[in-house]
Amino acid sequence: MPAGTEFEVRLTERLSSDDNRVGDRFTGILDTDIWHDGRVVIPSGARLTGEVTEAGKRRVNGDTRNVIAVRPVDMVVNGRRMPVNAWVLRAVTKEESNRSTLGDAAAGGLAGTLIMVATKDHEAVMPEDSRMTVGLETDLRIPAAIARR
């Protein structure tokens, strides 16, 4: 799959600035097939593993805020693990009142990360079932045994 390809995954667990720590792993599920050149290269049900790169308090525009930052690490497709060089472009949460705002990799200062920021009195949260749009930073080579026609 070429660099720049975007796909959406659904978080299988809740992530928050209060409960998670740097290095914690999380999982997202691909709900739709990814097609390339007329064939399914990654089937729905594939799992994306990510890592928390920052959690806790941070100075943002002169104020102390609660933040959580994440980045993709690899995908498991039909039982085979593949490293993925990608970034999270955006996230959509089901909870409209979580008082979090989205940032991007540039704002986060860490390549490949998505930053959720909340006020100092509220945790930054990505609830279970949040949708994250992931973009490939470099080409992802899919072994022929994985791709379906």
Name some characteristics of this structure.
9-stranded antiparallel β-sheet, 149 residues, elongated, single chain, 13 strands, Lipocalin, 3% helix
Structure characterization notes:
The chain is mainly beta and 149 residues long. The protein has one domain: Beta Barrel (Lipocalin). The protein is 3% helix and 51% strand. A hairpin with a 2-residue loop joins strand 6 and strand 7. It is elongated and about 50 Å long.
Element layout with pairings:
Layout: E1 6-11, E2 15-16, E3 25-30, E4 34-36, E5 39-42, E6 47-60, E7 63-77, E8 80-83, E9 86-92, E10 101-102, H1 105-108, E11 114-118, E12 125-126, E13 131-136
Antiparallel strand pairs: 1-3, 1-13, 2-12, 3-6, 4-5, 6-7, 7-8, 7-11, 9-13, 10-11
The SS-based structural class is mainly beta
Give unreliable regions as ranges: 96-111
Helical percent range?
under 10%
Portion in strands: over 45%
Outline, from the CA principal axes?
A: elongated
Q: What is the CATH C-level name?
A: Mainly Beta
Nearest-angstrom radius of gyration?
16 Å
> How many helices does DSSP assign?
1
The overall strand count is 13
Biggest sheet architecture: 9 strands, antiparallel
Average pLDDT across residues?
Answer: 81
Number of domain units? 1
One letter per element, helices H and strands E, the order comes to EEEEEEEEEEHEEE
CATH architecture, by name, is: Beta Barrel
From the N-terminal CA to the C-terminal CA, the straight-line distance is 15 Å
CATH topology: Lipocalin
Summarize the structure.
The chain has one helix at residues 105-108, and strands spanning 6-11, 15-16, 25-30, 34-36, 39-42, 47-60, 63-77, 80-83, 86-92, 101-102, 114-118, 125-126, 131-136. It has 149 residues and is mostly beta strands. It is elongated, with a radius of gyration of 16 Å.
